[in-house]
Amino acid sequence: MSGFGVQVRDLIVRYGDDTAVDGLTLDIPAGSITGLLGRNGSGKTTLLSTLAAFRRPTSGRALVDGEDPWENERVMAGTCLIRESGDVLADEKLGATLDYVEQARPHFSRELAERLLDTFELDPKAKQNTLSRGKKSAFGAVVGLATRAELTMLDEVYLGMDAPSRYAFYDALLTDYVEHPRTIVLSSHLIEEIERLFEHVVVIDHGTLLLAEPADELRTRGLTVTGPSDAVERFSAGRTVVGRQQLGRTAQVTLFGPPAADDDARARDLGVELGPVDVQDLFVHLTARAGATGDAGGTAGLRVAPSDDPAGRSGSLTGSGAAGSDPTVTEVPR
Ligand SMILES: Nc1ncnc2c1ncn2[C@@H]1O[C@H](COP(=O)(O)OP(=O)(O)OP(=O)(O)O)[C@@H](O)[C@H]1O
Fold first, then answer.
1. Is residue 45 lining ligand 1, measured as CB closer than 6 Å?
2. Does ligand 1 come within 6 angstroms of the Cβ of 42?
3. Are 6 and 27 in contact (CB under 8 A)?
4. Nearest CA to ligand 1 atom 16
5. 301 in a domain, yes or no?
């Protein structure tokens, strides 16, 4: 099993007059862990619900393993969406829910489920609706991981879990993914803790695509600079600063934009250290809405096209895409 890939083309999903997904085109590679990032109300749950066939597109296509998931038994048997609510039988004992999932899901691992119940200190005799919020989330994570679906989508499943539980969840996810590769989508607006898990990142805002690319590429879209404040300021002069921290006389800034050829030499001369970009800072920057949260770099509304978007519909960080006349698009040259 290496997982189902996802192809979304010109997808629009409306709730009455409210457009939750607004012309989305993106791919989620099979056999990867993808972070689906976006601010509140950006359309993450709606997109995932459409892929899980909980909802029909208003127009456009959302294909899972090359097929429309709607009333598609094969695709649905290999697709699992766990939403924040847990998506499990609320009035059943946890053990009974696991019995049910075990019968319904071909790759379900009872052994993994029981190991994770122990990890999260969940009593199989307890009923889901009597659990605390964090324990409910943990049980959702147990079901989502143990189902080992070809397309596993975990929609902010860690909400309410305490830090030790969250880290146990991340470890369990990575360990099981390495042993049983599949397509995993983790939706989140809390990035710092989980960005190390992502191989691929999709950022959406207002139901439209801001960015879809390998996480390693995302990390080359900026850098952090650490050192004495005045040296950091000199190094950063003229660059787009999207994050800043100060500890005594030491400063750290996050810069957006590709590294320059002489960065290493300048860093040595000035006595500052360069490091990988802080993805959280990058996310805040990319999703900053003009006039709402402040726009450190003046690039609010920035849109980045996936490299295979021939129409350049959403613009491009390389400046090659046709951002068209959309006034919200700012192109940043490489
Ligand atoms: N059942 C619904 N009826 C009407 N509007 C809805 C419904 N569900 C979502 N919406 C609207 O669709 C938009 C996208 O919501 P969605 O839940 O998909 O976003 P999200 O990115 O998952 O948000 P969050 O991070 O807050 O969970 C929002 O404007 C929301 O108000």
1. yes
2. yes
3. yes
4. 43
5. no
